[in-house]
Amino acid sequence: MSKHKMVDGRLLQMNKSYGQLKQKQKEKISEWMYQAYRKQTLENLSDEEALQLVFDRIEEAKIWIPDHEILNRYRAKKNQFKRRLAGENVPQHIFVMESILEKATQKMASLEKKIEEYAAFQSEIRKLEAYYTSQQWKDDYFMDEDGTFPAKLKRGVLSQDGIWSLLERNKELTRKLGISEVQGHDEHE
After folding, report:
1. pTM above the 0.85 mark?
2. Other CB atoms within 10 Å distance of the CB of residue 58
3. Separation between Cα atoms, residue 5 and residue 11, nearest integer Å
4. How far apart are alpha carbons 51 and 76 in whole angstroms?
5. Of the candidates 59, 65, 54, the residue with the CA atom closest to the CA atom of residue 20
6. Which residues of 136-154 are buried (b: 16+ CB within 10 A; e: fewer)?
7. Is residue 156 classed as helix, strand or coil in its secondary structure?
8. What is the pLDDT of residues 9-50, one digit of tens each?
């Protein structure tokens, strides 16, 4: 049996599949299918009634493809068409507001995690404060003043203003964040 047949002076491949169409033909047919789906949804048409519009357009465009190929493709794409149609009916501001909601939720979750980490770090800051108010810090400070430590040593911890400024800033931040002096206390102390 021949795979080709002469119809209206045209030699047609009878077993042609949708995948064998040219890309532009597929795009046109897909758009016609979507328009048929919209009409089907609005007018409560059957698949066959909606597809008749597609078949008519395909014939006008002189594209040859067996009807069952179009029917199968249409049924396979209906969920995609449904999502597309739903998206077209949604006001744009809904998408904008949804995006803001998602970003805000992510930022808040990230901030909450950072606040928890900061609260837990308070025990380390208390160690720094204990060092700053100890005789050890005074001894270290005077040793540094005398040039006992190497010149390349990072010595922010030995500056009088560095630790004091950090401790004052920490007090302000813990007050703003509602972190009490007890929160973040190291259980091993």
Report:
1. no
2. 19
3. 6
4. 13
5. 65
6. ebeebbeeeeeeeeeeeee
7. helix
8. 654 455 567 777 788 988 998 899 999 998 898 888 898 898
